[in-house]
């Protein structure tokens, strides 16, 4: 009977949830995709071919049991579908919204490869988890029994929160320390509301608090509280700070006012959604209204900046990227959304400097072509001589990626090993650092990456910490 509800990709075409028209959505920061109706979610889930070897699951960093919860959704068994989806994912409603499914699960769907159009996995995941919240099925992860051991987590981003959730469910006393005034990391201050509305994040934070996780906010480790003090208070420590150091352009004129960092710009925009008063927005420093905006970079952060500038009322918004569309790192879906909203992409271009006497007036642009492949196999951009021009700009946003801060120096943490890239050096199996009882997870280990990878790392690190605590208890008992 169950199989009759599946394998409908031959007769049913792929459909995404309705997308708000560009002229409407660029007026606000609300999410652009509407919710699936129950019937539509079941129909789209029924297109799954129930592969013997599910490539969607294999290419999901969390190895979510995607075919199982698609089948349950098609059968109308939504609570069971939710239980399956949350068994491997701490925050399925967040991944359903912001994962680049076109590069992960949906991009490797078997029926997509056969030309029938992928199953809309992310939209169904979002639907079943939102429905679970509506129905009250999502409950705080209170443990069956409390344990005396405590763990300190530095960083309230996705890796830290995922680890906190898993440790708390095991009965561990968990305290999360973060430099910002609100938990969530990039989920709160880095990703715009049109991709991830902030109440979605805040209700997860509230749920963790209800489960017994303690949060210490406005805590800059190394300043407000020392790293050694945190170690002394806990049986184990997890470092999940992420990477926040902006890569900047070293070119003539780069010190001019009006050239800003992507994360500074996005943080201000997201603070406004909470009703905060932000002086840098009020005085126009980090406000695109009425300005000619140029964003430099081609990743997802660049897409977020571009689409934010549109919503703030920029007169024009252009993206400079040194490769072509096929070779850009950002989501193709996000690129399409940006174009619909009025962003102009200027491919095969790179900045060589900036014009303006103290205040930016333009970007000196050099045109590029793609040459021989580099070490990663991607074609390396080469400068085309004599093709330079100046792109007028009142606000230039640098979105070239992020690098790790020098934590050993900032925290005075002697013996905390780092790689040649500045990320923390850990055992790839256990996430253990070079310091006893100190673990690390997320972007501070792997470099700037996806939220879904951070969630996986946090969950894995939590499991390793539980093993470490058990070993420590056994050693004490043996003495």
From TrEMBL:
Pfam families: Fer4_20, Pyr_redox_2
UniProt keyword Ribonucleoprotein present: no
Location of the FAD/NAD(P)-binding domain: 151-458
Keyword entries, A-Z: 4Fe-4S, Iron, Iron-sulfur, Metal-binding, Oxidoreductase
Record-given protein name: NAD(P)-dependent oxidoreductase
Keyword Nucleotide-binding: no
Matching InterPro entries: DPD_II, FAD/NAD-bd_sf, FAD/NAD-binding_dom, GltD-like, Helical_ferredxn
Dihydroprymidine dehydrogenase domain span: 25-136
Taxon lineage: Bacteria, Pseudomonadati, Pseudomonadota, Alphaproteobacteria, Rhodobacterales
